[in-house]
Amino acid sequence: MGFLLGSQADIRSRALANGWITTDTLQNQLFTKTLNEDMRFRGVLEPVPDLRIELSAFRTRNLNYQTNFKYSPLTNEVENLSPITSGDYSISYFTLPTAFSKTTGINNTSAVFQKFLDNRSVVSQRLGRQNPNSTNVTNGFADGYSANDQDVLVSSFLAAYSGKDASSISTGSFPKIPIPNWQITYTGLNKLPFLTDLFDSFDMQHGYRSSYSVNGFNTLLRYSEANGAVNVRDANNDFLPYYQYAQITIFEQFVPLLGFSARFKNSMTGNFEYRQSRALSLSLSNSQLTQQNETAVVFGFGYHTSNFRFPFGLFQNLQLKNDMNFKLDFAIADNKTVVFRPDVQEADVSSGAKNITVRPSVNYVINQRFNLQLFYDSNITKPYTSQSFNTAFTNFGVNLKLLFQ
After folding, report:
1. Which of 146, 210, 236, 317 has the most CB atoms around its CB within 10 Å?
2. What is the pLDDT of residues 86-136, one digit of tens each?
3. What does the DSSP 8-state code read for residue 241?
């Protein structure tokens, strides 16, 4: 009945006691247990008219436990052979205190990355005090918790890039409490006295999202504890972590940092957005950090009319009575990937480019069957590395669509 109702209890011992499965010691069976957690929280605040604040948070965890088992006549219980737990973890996080940190100089130095390196000795000594099997401190690092130890790196990294103190941050690799992200929209700007006569609508947007992820972690068969803490070491004389993994990631984005969209009284529309994102990937095998920063400025303009007259030229007396839409999109994007290495002053720019895009277009409804479009698309790219060339692409043309009814 428990199994039918979703119970996760291990019923193997009960199955042995009731004779449901064999007690033959030569019979090995595979036992697998999965756990999937998906927690999501949403809330909406409207503290004043026309101001809407949407809060969202999440935490997901996937665990897969697998072992071979057989009956043990010595204990009259189930004996687990080579048990291992693997999984993934992701949670909404908060890294706003360092969101606007920049690399400086020709060496692309980063104050936040240097803070991460400085935090390692602080976290190492904290972990050493928590483990009675750690005996001493040498050159600022506790025994069994060197500068490249996984637990030292993760806590130091999270403290540096979340703007917290390394002496007080939790030393766990899996934060338990999801931090809310937000999306803010204000639609009351057109109600201001000096804007009422110009705009039908004038909206402002701001959004922030940040997440922390650990992918592909698994337990170690050699892991064991003594005196209430881990006592087994690896080849580098560091204590083994309970979960081992190769990389952790923080992804942060402003969607947008600041954005405006407006509709004028004369049927014109306009929008502006400044977007910013940052992806941080820390390799735990060599303490190497890959940081990808992207910024984008997006501008859009549109105009709709059903009574268009050319302002100049041979066609200035021609008046078009059908619907015509003008649209102009303009964007400047900057994408750069920088690789930081511990104890190396100069950071390497591995990829990235500056990009400018211009896309004007005109759509005119000739009649119920024909639709005419004129378009132009220009894209200019200037890379940061010598691995690729400066490029410029231009597309332009005319589309004539025939609609069958």
Report:
1. 210
2. 999 999 999 999 999 988 888 888 999 999 999 999 999 999 999 999 989
3. P
């940061």: which residue's tokens? 384
d(CA 240, CA 131): 12
Beta strands in 223-316 (DSSP E): 225-226, 229-230, 243-244, 247-264, 268-283, 289-305, 308-309
Residue 272's Cβ-count burial label (10 Å; 0-12, 13-18, 19+) is middle
Which residues in 151-170 are b (16+ Cβ under 10 Å) and which e? bbbbbbbbbbbbebebeebe
Match 């969209």 to its residue by tokens. Answer: 261
Cα radius of gyration (the chain): 30
Q: Of all residues in the chain, what percent are helix, strand and coil, respectively (each to 5)?
A: 10, 50, 35
Does this model's pTM top 0.85? My answer is yes
- What φ, ψ does residue 249 adopt, rounded to 5°? -140, 140
Enumerate residues 6+ apart whose C-beta is below 8 A from 118: none
